[in-house]
Amino acid sequence: MSLKHLLPMSLRHALRPQYQRLQRRWRESAWSRKPAAWQASRQLAHAETRFDVLLAMAAQEFGITQVPSEIEALIERLRVLKPRTIVEIGTHKGGNSFLFCHAVTTATRVVGVDLCVQNAEKLIHFARDGQRYFALHGDSQTALMKRRVQDCLGGQPIDFLFIDGDHRYAGVKADFELYAPLVRSGGVIALHDIVPDHRTRYGRETGCYAGDVHRYWAELKQGHACTEFIGDPEQDGFGIGVIDVR
């Protein structure tokens, strides 16, 4: 009989959240054993510079939902910017975070925020030499999470902020208003899913969900210097909107 079966059920339920947090911290620590396959993939990622190869690795190792031409245009923009600090709101499976770490080699601190950062321990393990990846699990739209992000940045402003979390109008607006002030002048903010999905435009259910990001993006464009990376104006969601912070 295991130790947990000796505890009353009520106590086990009460202790479960703390136990799960400890488990997660151990998996994400440098001391936890990592699968041997990760080592080989990590070495390949560290040696690779070609975007198409890194994009394929992001899809295979983590999972990524992007139009290739759009995310490539964003990466090229970032390679010119040469950001050192990157914050991603809404990491999903971690494919974007992987690209930000490995296709933008100037980044030294990359922070991923999500209710549950999927593949967190793998993202941390894949970080380049001299680079740190911080996985922050929790609600991005709280003052506490904002302070946690700032703590990870070590007092540095954000060079690049990528918002791809809550796609409701109120949600994307809250994420922007909370984290945009942390971005330095000359930095860049990008929003994903600025193209309305086909359900919104045509009433046709396709499974693709871009939410209300397009509504908020239309408002942001009125007061900022913006660039749009859109593969096809008729596509079902996606699209990346970029703001130059001045």
Layout: helices, strands, pairs:
Blueprint: H1 9-27, H2 36-47, H3 51-61, H4 68-81, E1 85-89, H5 95-102, E2 109-114, H6 120-126, E3 132-137, H7 143-153, E4 158-163, H8 169-179, E5 183-192, H9 198-202, H10 213-220, E6 225-229, E7 240-244
Parallel strand pairs: 1-2, 1-4, 2-3, 4-5
Antiparallel strand pairs: 5-7, 6-7
Helix pairs in contact: 3-5
- Say which CATH homologous superfamily is assigned: Vaccinia Virus protein VP39
Q: Strand order of the main beta sheet, please?
A: 3-2-1-4-5-7-6
Percentage beta strand: 15-25%
Rg, alpha carbons: 19 Å
Mean pLDDT: 92
**SS elements, strand count:** 7
Q: Which term fits the overall shape?
A: globular
Helix/sheet category: alpha/beta
Parts with pLDDT < 50 across at least 5 consecutive residues: none
Fraction in helix: 40-55%
Main sheet: strands, sense, barrel = 7 strands, mixed
What is the architecture at the second tier of CATH? 3-Layer(aba) Sandwich
CATH domain class name? Alpha Beta
What is the CATH third-level topology name? Rossmann fold
Count of individual domains: 1
Structure description:
The chain has 246 residues and is of the alpha/beta class. The chain has a single domain, classed as Rossmann fold (3-Layer(aba) Sandwich). It contains 10 helices and 7 strands. It has a 7-stranded mixed beta sheet, with helices on both faces. Helix 8 links the parallel strand 4 (158-163) and strand 5. The longest helix has 19 residues, at 9-27. The termini are far apart. The mean pLDDT is 92.
Overview features:
246 residues, alpha/beta, Rossmann fold, 17% strand
